[in-house]
Design brief:
- This protein is mainly beta and 184 residues long.
- The chain is built from 3 helices and 10 strands.
- The protein has helices at residues 2-7, 37-44, 129-132; strands spanning 20-25, 53-59, 65-68, 80-88, 92-93, 95-103, 110-117, 141-143, 157-166, 173-183.
- The strands form 2 sheets. Strands 1, 3, 4, 5, 8 and 10 form a 6-stranded antiparallel beta sheet that branches.
- A hairpin with a 6-residue loop joins strand 6 (95-103) and strand 7 (110-117).
- The longest helix is centred in the N-terminal third of the chain and has 8 residues, at 37-44.
- It is elongated and about 75 Å long.
- The two termini are 33 Å apart.
């Protein structure tokens, strides 16, 4: 019967399975209004604020689904680790809380995935962004793949919001690398 099905165009092939691969999002991966350090720093503002303000956003491209984090919490050397720093170079840090969230395309549904004090996301050396970036995963916050949340689908959004508790003297630099899993 298989040959007759092929001759008459009735082939049935199983749908390909989707496998995720690990990646990171950084400032440059954001949408047009969120893809430079200057834009992100302007959104953080220089004045403390109690509300969470959106500082970065990325719209999921066509034919992709994305989950925050990668790897498994049961395998610590396999999971993603993240960092975030907003600083006045050689002077002081912004101090606040970073919120990782996902939203539908029109933001009618927003899911908060994690809230992390940013003091836990960078080193204690405020000299440059490079020295603020932790290299030892034992001093970084892990973000395993967030399988308990729905995948962020095409046209939906990955977002970072920030609540600034204490502003740095000035805003010179901001950077981050947050793990994600991409399915396509």
């Amino acid at each position: 019967m298989g040959l007759l099905d092929q001759l008459f165009g009735r082939t049935q092939t199983p749908a390909p399975s989707s496998y995720g691969f690990r990646s990171y999002v950084q400032v440059v991966d954001g949408d047009a209004a969120y893809d430079t350090q200057a834009e992100v720093l302007a959104l953080i503002t220089g004045v403390a604020h109690a509300a969470y303000i959106k500082i970065w956003e990325m719209t999921v491209p066509a034919q992709q689904r994305i989950a925050w984090g990668f790897g498994s919490a049961g395998l610590p050397h396999n999971q993603g680790y993240m960092w975030f720093a907003s600083l006045d170079i050689a002077t002081d840090w912004d101090k606040g809380v970073l919120r990782i969230q996902q939203a539908t395309a029109r933001e009618t549904r927003v899911i908060v995935v994690a809230e992390i004090p940013d003091s836990a996301l960078h080193t204690t050396t405020v000299t440059t962004l490079a020295t603020a970036t932790p290299l030892d995963r034992n001093q970084m916050i892990a973000l395993p793949e967030k399988v308990e949340y729905p995948l962020v689908r095409e046209d939906s959004k990955l977002q970072l919001t920030y609540r600034l508790i204490t502003a740095a003297t000035a805003h010179d630099n901001v950077g981050f690398a947050i793990p994600i899993t991409i399915y396509q």
